[in-house]
Amino acid sequence: MKKTVENHNIEEPLILTVKSVINYTSSLYELQLDKEGYEFTVGDCAALYSADGKTSRPYSIASGTNEPVLRFIIRKMPDGVVSTYLGNLRPGKKVQISLPFGWFRPGQNRADSPFVFIATGSGIAPFLAFMKSYPKSKPAYVLYGVKTLPEAVGYGNLKRWSNVDLAVSREKIKGIYNGRLTGLLDRIPLDKQTHYYLCGIDSMVEETGSWLEKQGIDITSIHREVFFNAEE
Ligand SMILES: Cc1cc2nc3c(=O)[nH]c(=O)nc-3n(C[C@H](O)[C@H](O)[C@H](O)COP(=O)(O)OP(=O)(O)OC[C@H]3O[C@@H](n4cnc5c(N)ncnc54)[C@H](O)[C@@H]3O)c2cc1C
Q: For residue range 196-220, what is the model confidence (pLDDT) as tens digits?
């Protein structure tokens, strides 16, 4: 039976099995869980739990709705209780997970209006979920900021799919903008019909959101999901 909000007995913890952990860098990894019928909507998060089942953190689902695995792109925080625990799991281990939840809905107006995705770091997760779920529905533009090139998860696929600019802040790479994503705000196509989806660290979401408002974009067309309140 599929695991959905409707049929899960909330008295029982929901447990999935680790398929693999892919390390992109020493501090960024992808956790893959066997989906086992788990259903979600693009933009949803799930709370993942520590070993004792007492501590949980929300993580945005990065896989397509039809993929057989659930993917999460996770930054390992120094001394981070949950992000460190999950990053050290081996295939076959069991993980407690909540039912999916969320209000961030990238591209939800895609049939009626253009849309733009803007992400830093693991904030690309909901946009990867969108790309894999709706490959024929393309954003007008994607702006993606990372610290180093190996952290640009999904960049190759995003480039083949849409019009993408990458900003790499801590490495100089020929042909790629060196600096923070906010140095490229002028490249964002501005249009009153367009919806803008911002996801990642608070400083980027605040700065980019304020900039869009100053350019005359209505606040109801700017959608924000903040993962971290911290310095980069
Ligand atoms: C809606 C939502 C979705 C999220 N989705 C994702 C996701 O897809 N991928 C992802 O990697 N994270 C995501 N997060 C962040 C995630 O939930 C955790 O906050 C993060 O993994 C740290 O948890 P932890 O238990 O490892 O660290 P904690 O044990 O909570 O913190 C350990 C130490 O690190 C510090 N710390 C915590 N966060 C930061 C930070 N960002 N920078 C510097 N220091 C910090 C704490 O103050 C503490 O000292 C999301 C958050 C929200 C609110």
A: 999 999 999 999 999 999 999 999 9
Considering the four listed CATH numbers 2.160.20.80, 2.120.10.70, 1.20.120.1200, 2.40.30.10, the one that applies to the domain covering 14-97 is 2.40.30.10
Judge whether 74 and 59 are in contact, CB under 8 Å: yes
Nearest CA to ligand 1 atom 2: 227
CB of 77 shorter than 6 A to ligand 1: yes
pLDDT tens for 86-127 read 999 999 999 999 999 999 999 998 888 999 999 999 999 999
Q: Is 194 touching ligand 1 by the criterion CB < 6 Å?
A: no
Residue type, 59: Y
> Given 3.40.50.2300, 3.40.50.80, 3.50.30.30, 3.40.50.300, which CATH number is that of 115-228?
3.40.50.80
- Evaluated on CA atoms 45, 51, 53, 57, the torsion sign reads negative
